[in-house]
Write a structure and sequence with these properties.
Layout (H helix, E strand, L loop, with lengths): L1 E9 L2 E14 L2 E11 L9 H12 L9 H10 L20 E7 L1 H12 L2 H7 L4 H16 L7 H7 L2 H5 L8 H11 L3 H15 L6 E10 L24 E8 L5 E8 L8 H12 L6 E4 L6 H9 L3 E5 L9 H5 L5 E2 L16 E8 L2 E8 H30 L6 H14 L1 H4 L2 E6 L4 E6 L1 H9 L3 E6 L6 H9 L2 H11 L12 H27 L6 H8 L3 E8 L4 E8 L4 H10 L9 E6 L4
Parallel strand pairs: 5-8, 8-9
Antiparallel strand pairs: 1-2, 2-3, 4-16, 5-6, 6-7, 9-15, 10-11, 11-12, 12-15, 13-14, 16-17, 17-18
Length: 604
């Protein structure tokens, strides 16, 4: 604080004024801030201005001196009402060498999660489902844990205390235990359908979503342990490559923008093709829509009975044909005329990316549109997959041949059963071989079918799409089917960043609620990424989470000269990248109101 002399010339006359100013830091550098005007007369000789300013600063801060200066005290009494903070209760003298910080907590990611929870009105949705305020609060905490740093319910209380959630929600979680979280799972379970239905309606309105395209696919997620109390936990086809573990199958329906519309948990040994009718029933209950949409599924569900079920409910279908369905189009695939290339743009996050060439050709079979597709990128992939399966098949054949030759397997019926099991296990490549068993010589032999192998090689990279929609163009059909990769991305996000697997719960209803929490977290994730996409910014939640991790809340410890210590609990100033993220998401920069507390200074 110092005294500054200013002059201004008006109409040939010079006016002099004296200002009491202080230097403050701003984003643009140090600046002078006027505290008050001292008038046109100098308050003291210029050589005494510095000492006078220091005395005024101390007096305005409430400090007293051993030798009172009536003139300074009188001037300070006149100046106090003119300041922004008349009592200046926030001005204290501190020991700068004892300033410290404590209890630093990460706030950026949980602040974003909490604000998007509010944007989606999830607290209101849970309240309408009949859940208490405490259950709603704990549900939010468990969902944010899935979004930010997934952990088991047993470890969640410690994680909550390591973040700034207590500061954001103005709640003390010191005594929170895992039992409360397990009870929340129990209370949440009966309300899953109502919550999912209300959330789908909220997102459709908030983001103006198209509900005429439904993308359906399945995945599996495995358990740690035997799960004797969960009848859904069974061994089946494991997409996680964990056939040694019991699992459940999860069905998920997304719209074309990637927002979940419905999900269902099936038995671990449920076959994909048998889930379509149940999923359509669940979808209709969640969305209230009866017909008029286009259901997109992969070849594992592209059977006649499923297509009939879809059309019977008033929907259209777009599916990938099963491999044998390509055979009638073999000549068309070989014919080089009539193909059109699909123009594919590289990902905005990877402008140098080279997309593989894709060509399409249209055919009509019994009123159904068949789109023949050839992909250079899939050609090598199909060959590598077939070679891998063929190697495994031949290896198992050699083992069976050795068992028979050594006399370990003599019964002809048993041998034929073993051959049948091999054909079933390796159905992808077994059809390219003739298998025979000679009982007289006790020999198992196999002969490659060169014509079938050559036909398979000609179809490498080729696939077939089918739809009953006559109004779609060729490229539009292909691009709609490619949207199915969004379901795969959703499963990838749920299994990796949101850590849906492995599951440690053993009770069926808790397993289902655990998966439901992962779906809720995915709603937040896709809403966050949608806000960025709407601004033309292609990024991922994982990237944003890492960038936000440096925004923290901490307590600043200020030991005052009056024997008291002032503690200020506040968030750090957001960095430029934090402000840009908050601006794009349309959420406030302010994380919390600063909290000030006084306490006697502890001796060190």
């Amino acid at each position: 604080m110092f005294i500054k002399r200013t002059t201004r010339r008006v109409g040939g006359k010079t006016y002099v004024n004296h200002l009491l100013v202080e230097s403050v830091a701003t984003p643009h550098g140090p600046r002078h801030r006027t505290i008050c005007s001292l008038g046109s007369l100098a308050p003291a000789p210029e050589e005494q201005w510095h000492a006078l300013a220091q005395k005024l600063s101390s007096a305005l801060g409430g400090q007293t001196t051993l030798v009172p200066d009536p003139a300074v005290d009188a001037l300070a009494a006149q100046l106090r009402p003119a300041r922004h903070h008349p009592a200046r209760s926030d001005v204290v003298a501190i020991h700068t060498d004892q300033v410290d910080t404590e209890d630093a907590r990460e706030v950026g990611p949980v602040h974003v999660g909490h604000q998007m929870w509010r944007v989606l009105a999830l607290d209101t949705i849970l309240a309408e489902a009949g859940l208490s305020a405490r259950t709603r609060r704990l549900t939010e905490l468990m969902t944010l844990n899935r979004l930010v740093s997934p952990a088991a319910e047993h470890a969640m209380p410690d994680w909550i205390r390591r973040t700034a959630l207590g500061d954001i929600l103005a709640t003390d979680f010191t005594a929170l235990a895992d039992d409360a979280l397990y009870r929340t799972l129990d209370r949440l379970h009966p309300q899953r359908a109502a919550i999912e239905r209300a959330l789908a309606a909220r997102e459709r309105t908030l983001f103006n979503l198209d509900d005429t395209i439904y993308l359906y696919d399945l995945t599996s997620t495995y358990f740690e342990g035997q799960c004797p109390f969960n009848p859904q936990a069974k061994r089946g086809y494991s997409r996680d490559h964990r056939p040694d573990c019991k699992q459940v199958v999860v069905g998920l329906v997304l719209d074309r923008d990637g927002f979940p519309r419905a999900h269902e948990v099936f038995d671990g040994n449920r076959v994909d093709r048998t889930t379509v009718a149940d999923m359509l029933t669940t979808l209709e209950a969640r969305t209230g829509r009866r017909g008029g949409a286009t259901v997109v599924v992969d070849r594992g569900m592209a059977f006649a009975d499923n297509l009939q079920e879809i059309t019977a409910r008033g929907h259209h279908y777009l599916v990938a044909g099963r491999h044998p369905e390509r055979t009638p189009h073999l000549a068309a695939f070989a014919d080089e005329t009539g193909w059109a290339e699909v123009i594919r743009q590289p990902s905005p996050r990877n402008p140098g990316q080279k997309k593989s060439r894709v060509e399409i050709k249209r055919a009509v079979v019994d009123g159904e549109i068949h789109l023949l597709c050839r992909s250079e990128g899939r050609t090598e992939k199909d060959r590598a997959i077939r070679a891998k399966h063929e190697q495994r098949f031949l290896g198992d054949l050699q083992k069976l041949q050795a068992r028979v030759a050594q006399g370990h397997l003599r019964d002809a019926a048993k041998v034929h059963e073993a051959i049948g099991r091999l054909k079933e296990r390796h159905a992808r490549v077994a059809r390219y071989y003739d298998l025979t068993y000679e009982a007289a010589t006790a020999a198992v032999t196999w002969t490659p079918q060169a014509d079938k192998q050559a036909q398979a090689e000609r179809l490498d990279g080729a696939y077939l799409l089918k739809t009953d929609r006559q109004d779609l163009g060729d490229e539009e059909i292909w691009r709609l089917y490619i949207l199915l990769t969004r379901v795969e991305d959703a499963f990838r996000d749920m299994k990796s960043p949101l850590l849906e697997r492995p599951i440690f719960h053993h009770l069926q209803h808790r397993v289902q609620t655990h998966i439901f929490l992962c779906v809720l977290a995915y709603h937040l994730l896709v809403a966050i990424e949608k806000r960025f996409l709407d601004q033309g910014i292609h990024t991922s939640w994982a990237t944003l989470r890492a960038q936000l991790s440096t925004h923290q809340v901490q307590t600043i410890v200020l030991p005052a000269t009056n024997g008291q210590t002032l503690r200020i609990r506040k968030a750090s100033t957001p960095e430029a990248i934090h402000r840009e993220i908050y601006r794009t998401l349309q959420i406030p920069h302010e994380v919390m109101k600063p909290v000030r507390t006084w306490a006697p200074t502890e001796s060190r």
